[in-house]
Amino acid sequence: MQATIQSDMNTTEAKRILETALICAQQPMPVRDLRVLFNDSLGADTIKTLLEELQQEWTGRGVELVCVATGWRFQSRPEMREYLDRLHPEKPPRYTRATLETLAIIAYRQPVTRGDMEDIRGVTISSQIIKQLEDRGWIEVIGHREAPGRPALYATTKHFLDDLGLASLDQLPLMESPEQPGGMLDMLADLPAEGESAGLPLEEVATEGDTSGDEASTATTSDDGPESGDAEPFTLSGNPT
After folding, report:
1. Rounded Cα–Cα distance for residues 122 and 53 (Å)
2. Is residue 230 pLDDT above 70, yes or no?
3. Which of 52, 70, 148, 193 yields a CA-CA distance of 20 to 30 A from 34?
4. CA separation for the pair 160, 194 (Å, rounded)
């Protein structure tokens, strides 16, 4: 390691530079950007090794260094959320279960059309739900299916993975059962709010009967009605593709 670092800088100093840049960064930083700190004199493998050493050095602290889809970043550990939430007692926007289930379908079955989602959930999906997820930057149209009407194909984004603190879709939790996407919904519900530390702004998840929030006033009757009480649970089996 030492031999790969320019003579006027030792390993400790290199890690201090990386640490400072990452702490001050507003967004995750990829290795290629971190190399610029050293005028590209350090190779990608050397940077990765230094980052892994930094990860170990931050073990046991309230903040951790993680690699997500778009790069490396520091973020608070999940167990710190209880205390950080006290600094922001106001309630963040709430997302209904319909929204989270739609997001889960896209994450695990992508690419999917709106019709695919409706077939899986068994109800009509409100346009407002799709718009919410697009505006949040969690899903995007990646193409169109060669079928009548050429329906749009939706997939999750790297920003979605960043907000979950994941590097790839392979790290999504496995389905607990074909009937209940519990692991995914729990993951979405438990992550810290944006602005407090890395994660999705989902401090609270509406129960199936909840109609609070902006979406409730705009969702279609078929999405609000059956789901809020007597609808059969939708099936979503398998691993993310």
Report:
1. 48
2. no
3. 193
4. 12
